[in-house]
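Form 12-C: Joint structure prediction
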Amino acid sequence: MKQGIPGIGGAKRPRPNVISGSILRRSARTKVICIGAMCILLILIAVFAGKLSPHDPNQTSALLIRKPPSKEYPFGTDSFGRCVLSRVLAGAGTTIFATTVLVAVTFAIGTVLGIISGYYGGWADAVIMRVTELFLAFPQMVVAIAVAGILGGGLSAALIALGVTAWTGYAKIARSHTLSVKNENYIAAARLAGLKGWQIILFHILPNILFPLVTNALTQIGTTMIGISGLSFLGLGVIPPQAEWGSMINESRAYIQLAPWAVLYPAAATIVTIMLFNYLGDAVMELRKAERRR
Amino acid sequence: MPLPFHGGGLSALFTAMKRYVIKRLISLIPMLLVLSFFSFLLLDMAPGDPAEKKLAAQGIAVTKEVLDAERIRMGLDRPFLTRYLSWLAGAVRGNLGVSYKDGFPVMGKLLEGLGKTCYLAFFSMLLSLIVAVPVSVVSAVRQNSVFDNVFRVFSFGGNSIPNFLISVLLMYVFCIRIKMFPVLAGDSFSGLFLPVISLAIPMAGRFIRQFRAELISQLEQDYVTGIRARGVRESIVLFRNVLYNALGHMITIVGLSVGTLMGGSVVIETIFRWSGIGKLVMDSITARDYPVVQGFVLVMGFLYLIIGLLTDLIFVTIDPRTEINS
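Section 2 - Result
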């Protein structure tokens, strides 16, 4: 390997970033807006799935079993003669709704616990953090599969099963951010002004740490979707005939030779959606880094 | 705070290590208690009466007399805590009760499946490390090169595609489209390829991403500049210093991924009909054979805790500055 004399490390060294912060920030912001717009479009599709879908997603037909894609049925039909396109559209609603609920609830629980633990310290901190660490020590999917399996399936059981361990990450991050702002002057000022603990938390700590916390929650959307669709695939998520991509793929995979479209279209929808939300998470993280350089 | 082994040489380091190991082993005890309590609770969370479910699983007609006799035999007439403690006493000795379905000991069933799962997990871990370590090193050294970008796309894809999808798609392409592998190869060696690849792709994707970030953060540190300034060859800097310093974090990343691997193997084994612990637990869920599910959580949780402990110990051995003091 070459030794670099000019500068240190020469050609091997990553080039120092000569792009100014403002350009970096602007490009990161553009990226977030573009990806965010695509995600919102996806959410809109999910919301208006009923209006967009050409057929009733649960309408079965003995005459239309496993028909290849046609003008009438653009994504073909599955082994019950149901329209795959309509089911993919209906599945978008299921997946996005379930993910939003799970991320929002675990985020709220985790954040509240984390802030309380960070702000009050002492025994509250000790108890909350011990419990958090205990739940962090369990492998998430193993717990989720067992809990969902024992609760006996259904979407709410699957969400509970994933939620048992999902809040821990949010709690840890909320706590560390609370600790980093806790000793700032404005907190001391608020305390001197006679504000109560919950008021300080709500009006002074939360607004100041919300951005990084929400960023982190956004990066978890993709992972959460993978978890939900995985449970549904195993038959531990939605109860048929409700449309969900993971369970659609599971129902149709036995006939993949005869009707590959019934697997490949929901598969494509899953991949595109998760990639989009993961990309959104990455873009928001990048923006946060660029903002921090200021 | 001064290091406890400062100036004391190796023997002091060993004393500090020993103290650390003992401390960690003691901290494992409450974790195990909570894990066991949680596993025991699982059985009570199941809707319905356990005695009735056991009888139903065995196909015995449920009458009141049979049910009452079974309840007493199963100890369900005793209070919750008493039942937990007697179950715990058995679990410590490796007795996790018997299966509702066929009456065989749960532990034996689990161990049999665990062997096969470990076989699968070992090869997928090996494959993903063989891919991820060299790729992440090259990507970190040549940031933003074509190579880096190609593998960034790969690792992003691996992170975004659920493993059940990877395996269904691989099956479609390799078994149905080009007929390279039989669809159901069973537990034979040729049946190992697709499950191993399906487990390895997401794992390799995550490893590449995390290893690369860790290596880059090492490369940006002052000691690297210092060594380079002294004219040390780049290959030595990379392999002797940077890689060694990143090793602790890399092993921690690998250790944490074992949990994902455990969950992933349930999915993969179900798809490929690999008779490991994952398929066992899915079959048991379908058959409502809850003691097996309970045992699964306990055994997997236990293994995960032990692996966590081992990775921490390896970390401290490699880099004694970090945790011994705290």
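Section 3 - Comments
Residues 58 and 82 of chain A are 6 Å apart (CA to CA). Residues 1-11 of chain A have pLDDT under 50 and may be disordered.
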